[in-house]
Design brief:
The protein is an alpha+beta fold. Helix content is 42%, strand content 27%. The chain has a 4-stranded antiparallel β-sheet with strand order 1-2-3-6, with no helix packed on it. The chain is elongated, with a radius of gyration of 21 Å. The two termini are 29 Å apart.
Length: 113
C-alpha cells in the first residue's frame, strides 16, 4: 500500500497501546482517502501491529477518477521537469565550457523549483 504522512498525529490509541497516525492512501482504489494506523504499524519492512481504521468514507467514482487523473498529471509534469533539467544542464554545460561546479549548482537550483 502506498501511503504518506500528512504531518498530523492523532490522539487515538491502537490495541497495542501505541499512538495512531493519520495517513493518506495513494493506491488507485482509495486515492486521497485518509486512514489511521498504529505507530507500530511498520518496523522497517516488518508489520508489528495490524491496527487499521478508515478515517474517511469510501470515495465515489467521480472523485476516484479525478484523483487518479490528477496523480497521472503530476507524474507527467515531474517527468517533463526532469527532462527540462537535463536539457538545461546540457545547454548550460556547453555554454560554460563544461564547468562542472557551475553546472552542478545550476541543476541543484532547478531542483528547488
Amino acid at each position: 500500500m502506498n501511503v504518506s504522512s500528512n504531518g498530523h498525529d492523532s490522539q487515538m490509541v491502537c490495541k497495542c497501546g501505541a499512538s495512531t497516525k493519520l495517513k493518506i492512501s495513494w493506491s488507485k482504489d482509495n486515492l486521497g482517502r485518509r486512514f489511521y494506523v498504529s505507530g507500530n504499524y511498520y518496523n522497517g519492512s516488518i508489520a508489528c501491529c495490524d491496527y487499521f481504521f478508515w478515517y474517511d468514507p469510501p470515495i465515489n467514482d467521480f472523485h476516484a477518477q479525478l484523483f487518479n487523473k490528477l496523480k497521472k498529471e503530476i507524474k507527467n509534469l515531474k517527468l517533463q521537469f526532469e527532462a527540462q533539467k537535463v536539457h538545461a544542464m546540457e545547454n548550460f554545460g556547453a555554454s560554460s565550457n563544461n564547468n562542472n561546479v557551475s553546472s552542478t549548482l545550476f541543476v541543484e537550483r532547478l531542483g528547488d523549483l
